[in-house]
Amino acid sequence: MQKQQMAAMFDSIAPRYDFLNTFLSFGIHVGWRKKAISLLKKDAPKRILDIATGTADFAIESLSLKPDSVVGVDLSEGMLRLGQAKLAKKNLGSKIQLIQGDSENLPFEKDSFDAVTVGFGVRNFENLNKGLTSICRVLRPGGILVILEFSKPTNSLIKSLYRFYFGYLTPFIGRLFSKDSLAYSYLPESVYAFPDGQDFLDLMKKNGFSDNKQLSLTFNIASIYVGKK
What we know:
Blueprint: H1 3-25, H2 28-38, E1 47-51, H3 57-61, E2 69-74, H4 77-89, E3 96-100, E4 113-119, H5 128-138, E5 139-150, H6 156-178, H7 183-193, H8 198-206, E6 210-217, E7 222-228
Helix pairs in contact: 1-4, 1-6, 6-7
Protein backbone atom coordinates (compact mmCIF):
# COMPACT_ATOMS: atom_id res chain seq x y z
CA MET A 1 0.00 0.00 0.00
CA GLN A 2 1.35 3.44 -0.91
CA LYS A 3 2.09 6.02 1.79
CA GLN A 4 -0.77 8.35 0.85
CA GLN A 5 -3.26 5.49 1.00
CA MET A 6 -1.81 4.33 4.32
CA ALA A 7 -2.11 7.79 5.86
CA ALA A 8 -5.69 8.19 4.61
CA MET A 9 -6.67 4.77 5.96
CA PHE A 10 -5.32 5.52 9.42
CA ASP A 11 -6.89 8.99 9.37
CA SER A 12 -10.26 7.32 8.79
CA ILE A 13 -10.00 4.84 11.67
CA ALA A 14 -8.22 7.15 14.13
CA PRO A 15 -11.30 7.99 16.26
CA ARG A 16 -11.88 4.31 17.12
CA TYR A 17 -8.27 3.10 16.92
CA ASP A 18 -7.46 2.86 20.64
CA PHE A 19 -10.80 1.27 21.48
CA LEU A 20 -10.51 -1.35 18.76
CA ASN A 21 -6.90 -2.16 19.64
CA THR A 22 -7.92 -2.97 23.19
CA PHE A 23 -11.14 -4.73 22.20
CA LEU A 24 -9.62 -6.90 19.47
CA SER A 25 -6.54 -7.88 21.49
CA PHE A 26 -8.48 -8.36 24.76
CA GLY A 27 -6.09 -5.80 26.25
CA ILE A 28 -3.06 -8.05 25.80
CA HIS A 29 -1.27 -5.43 23.69
CA VAL A 30 -0.76 -3.29 26.81
CA GLY A 31 1.41 -5.97 28.41
CA TRP A 32 3.27 -6.53 25.15
CA ARG A 33 4.09 -2.82 24.98
CA LYS A 34 5.33 -2.73 28.58
CA LYS A 35 7.53 -5.77 27.91
CA ALA A 36 9.05 -4.15 24.82
CA ILE A 37 9.88 -0.92 26.65
CA SER A 38 11.29 -2.82 29.65
CA LEU A 39 13.98 -4.28 27.39
CA LEU A 40 15.51 -0.79 27.15
CA LYS A 41 15.87 -0.26 30.90
CA LYS A 42 19.45 -1.47 31.16
CA ASP A 43 20.50 0.88 28.35
CA ALA A 44 18.78 3.90 29.94
CA PRO A 45 18.35 5.79 26.65
CA LYS A 46 18.16 9.57 26.98
CA ARG A 47 16.91 10.36 23.45
CA ILE A 48 14.11 8.11 22.18
CA LEU A 49 12.35 8.06 18.81
CA ASP A 50 9.03 6.25 18.46
CA ILE A 51 8.16 5.49 14.83
CA ALA A 52 4.57 4.87 13.66
CA THR A 53 3.66 6.40 17.01
CA GLY A 54 -0.08 6.56 16.21
CA THR A 55 -1.85 7.95 19.26
CA ALA A 56 1.44 7.97 21.21
CA ASP A 57 0.92 4.97 23.52
CA PHE A 58 4.46 3.67 22.96
CA ALA A 59 5.94 7.15 23.39
CA ILE A 60 4.03 7.57 26.66
CA GLU A 61 5.16 4.15 27.93
CA SER A 62 8.77 5.05 27.17
CA LEU A 63 8.60 7.82 29.77
CA SER A 64 9.00 5.07 32.37
CA LEU A 65 12.66 5.02 31.28
CA LYS A 66 13.06 8.66 32.37
CA PRO A 67 14.57 9.89 29.09
CA ASP A 68 15.53 13.51 28.42
CA SER A 69 13.45 13.63 25.24
CA VAL A 70 10.92 11.52 23.32
CA VAL A 71 9.86 12.17 19.74
CA GLY A 72 6.97 10.37 18.03
CA VAL A 73 6.66 10.25 14.23
CA ASP A 74 3.68 9.13 12.17
CA LEU A 75 2.32 9.61 8.64
CA SER A 76 -1.27 10.04 9.78
CA GLU A 77 -2.33 13.53 10.79
CA GLY A 78 -5.53 12.13 12.27
CA MET A 79 -3.67 9.74 14.57
CA LEU A 80 -1.26 12.48 15.68
CA ARG A 81 -4.14 14.81 16.44
CA LEU A 82 -5.57 12.23 18.83
CA GLY A 83 -2.11 11.64 20.25
CA GLN A 84 -1.73 15.35 20.97
CA ALA A 85 -5.10 15.37 22.74
CA LYS A 86 -4.01 12.38 24.83
CA LEU A 87 -0.76 14.13 25.80
CA ALA A 88 -2.64 17.28 26.75
CA LYS A 89 -5.08 15.30 28.90
CA LYS A 90 -2.19 13.61 30.70
CA ASN A 91 -0.22 16.87 30.90
CA LEU A 92 2.65 15.34 28.94
CA GLY A 93 2.85 17.86 26.11
CA SER A 94 6.20 19.20 27.33
CA LYS A 95 7.75 15.72 27.53
CA ILE A 96 6.83 14.22 24.15
CA GLN A 97 7.03 15.88 20.74
CA LEU A 98 4.83 14.47 17.96
CA ILE A 99 5.80 15.08 14.32
CA GLN A 100 4.16 14.12 11.04
CA GLY A 101 6.80 12.35 8.99
CA ASP A 102 7.83 9.43 6.83
CA SER A 103 9.62 6.53 8.53
CA GLU A 104 11.53 5.81 5.33
CA ASN A 105 12.87 9.38 5.17
CA LEU A 106 13.20 10.38 8.81
CA PRO A 107 13.72 14.16 9.22
CA PHE A 108 16.56 13.90 11.75
CA GLU A 109 20.34 14.16 11.70
CA LYS A 110 22.52 11.08 11.69
CA ASP A 111 23.16 9.52 15.13
CA SER A 112 20.36 11.57 16.77
CA PHE A 113 18.83 8.94 19.07
CA ASP A 114 19.91 6.42 21.70
CA ALA A 115 16.91 4.16 21.06
CA VAL A 116 14.18 3.71 18.46
CA THR A 117 10.89 1.91 19.09
CA VAL A 118 8.27 0.77 16.58
CA GLY A 119 4.97 -0.69 17.76
CA PHE A 120 2.99 -2.59 15.12
CA GLY A 121 4.33 -0.33 12.39
CA VAL A 122 7.13 -1.95 10.41
CA ARG A 123 4.78 -4.18 8.44
CA ASN A 124 3.20 -0.97 7.10
CA PHE A 125 6.47 0.32 5.65
CA GLU A 126 6.13 0.69 1.89
CA ASN A 127 9.80 -0.32 1.54
CA LEU A 128 10.97 -2.37 4.53
CA ASN A 129 14.66 -2.20 3.66
CA LYS A 130 14.52 1.57 3.21
CA GLY A 131 12.70 1.99 6.51
CA LEU A 132 15.25 -0.07 8.44
CA THR A 133 18.14 1.79 6.79
CA SER A 134 16.55 5.12 7.74
CA ILE A 135 16.21 3.96 11.36
CA CYS A 136 19.82 2.82 11.42
CA ARG A 137 20.98 6.21 10.15
CA VAL A 138 19.33 8.19 12.97
CA LEU A 139 20.48 5.79 15.71
CA ARG A 140 23.81 6.55 17.33
CA PRO A 141 26.47 3.82 17.25
CA GLY A 142 25.53 1.33 19.96
CA GLY A 143 21.93 2.54 19.93
CA ILE A 144 19.09 0.03 20.33
CA LEU A 145 16.13 -0.73 18.08
CA VAL A 146 13.08 -2.39 19.65
CA ILE A 147 10.22 -3.49 17.41
CA LEU A 148 6.91 -5.00 18.50
CA GLU A 149 5.07 -6.66 15.64
CA PHE A 150 2.54 -9.38 14.91
CA SER A 151 3.87 -12.85 14.08
CA LYS A 152 2.40 -16.02 12.66
CA PRO A 153 1.84 -18.83 15.21
CA THR A 154 3.46 -22.19 14.47
CA ASN A 155 1.28 -24.41 16.68
CA SER A 156 -1.37 -25.95 14.39
CA LEU A 157 -4.31 -25.38 16.77
CA ILE A 158 -3.32 -21.80 17.61
CA LYS A 159 -2.65 -21.15 13.93
CA SER A 160 -6.18 -22.27 12.99
CA LEU A 161 -7.79 -20.14 15.70
CA TYR A 162 -5.56 -17.21 14.77
CA ARG A 163 -6.46 -17.39 11.08
CA PHE A 164 -10.17 -17.56 11.87
CA TYR A 165 -10.04 -14.66 14.33
CA PHE A 166 -7.73 -12.48 12.24
CA GLY A 167 -9.13 -13.43 8.87
CA TYR A 168 -12.86 -13.30 9.62
CA LEU A 169 -13.81 -11.87 13.01
CA THR A 170 -11.33 -8.99 13.09
CA PRO A 171 -12.39 -7.50 9.72
CA PHE A 172 -16.07 -7.92 10.66
CA ILE A 173 -15.71 -6.25 14.07
CA GLY A 174 -13.43 -3.56 12.64
CA ARG A 175 -15.93 -2.64 9.94
CA LEU A 176 -18.76 -2.67 12.45
CA PHE A 177 -17.12 -0.11 14.70
CA SER A 178 -14.89 1.91 12.37
CA LYS A 179 -17.12 1.94 9.25
CA ASP A 180 -13.96 1.39 7.20
CA SER A 181 -14.16 -1.56 4.83
CA LEU A 182 -10.44 -1.53 4.01
CA ALA A 183 -8.54 -1.02 7.25
CA TYR A 184 -9.41 -4.18 9.12
CA SER A 185 -9.20 -6.35 6.03
CA TYR A 186 -5.76 -4.88 5.41
CA LEU A 187 -4.65 -5.86 8.93
CA PRO A 188 -4.62 -9.67 8.45
CA GLU A 189 -3.28 -9.29 4.91
CA SER A 190 -0.34 -7.22 6.15
CA VAL A 191 0.40 -9.69 8.95
CA TYR A 192 0.43 -12.69 6.61
CA ALA A 193 2.67 -10.83 4.15
CA PHE A 194 5.18 -9.67 6.78
CA PRO A 195 8.50 -11.59 6.80
CA ASP A 196 8.53 -12.49 10.49
CA GLY A 197 10.93 -14.57 12.56
CA GLN A 198 14.33 -15.37 11.10
CA ASP A 199 13.44 -13.67 7.81
CA PHE A 200 13.03 -10.36 9.62
CA LEU A 201 16.16 -10.88 11.69
CA ASP A 202 18.03 -11.36 8.41
CA LEU A 203 16.60 -8.07 7.11
CA MET A 204 17.75 -6.28 10.27
CA LYS A 205 21.27 -7.63 9.78
CA LYS A 206 21.24 -6.67 6.10
CA ASN A 207 20.31 -3.09 6.98
CA GLY A 208 22.95 -2.37 9.60
CA PHE A 209 21.86 -4.03 12.86
CA SER A 210 23.74 -6.62 14.92
CA ASP A 211 23.13 -8.76 18.01
CA ASN A 212 19.62 -9.23 16.67
CA LYS A 213 17.15 -11.39 18.57
CA GLN A 214 13.46 -12.26 18.62
CA LEU A 215 11.30 -12.73 21.70
CA SER A 216 8.08 -14.62 21.07
CA LEU A 217 4.91 -13.46 22.85
CA THR A 218 1.63 -15.28 23.58
CA PHE A 219 1.95 -18.40 21.40
CA ASN A 220 3.96 -16.38 18.86
CA ILE A 221 0.97 -14.16 18.06
CA ALA A 222 3.42 -11.26 18.39
CA SER A 223 7.18 -10.84 18.64
CA ILE A 224 9.65 -8.33 19.95
CA TYR A 225 12.72 -7.82 17.78
CA VAL A 226 15.80 -6.21 19.30
CA GLY A 227 18.93 -5.08 17.47
CA LYS A 228 21.93 -2.82 17.99
CA LYS A 229 23.55 -0.39 15.56
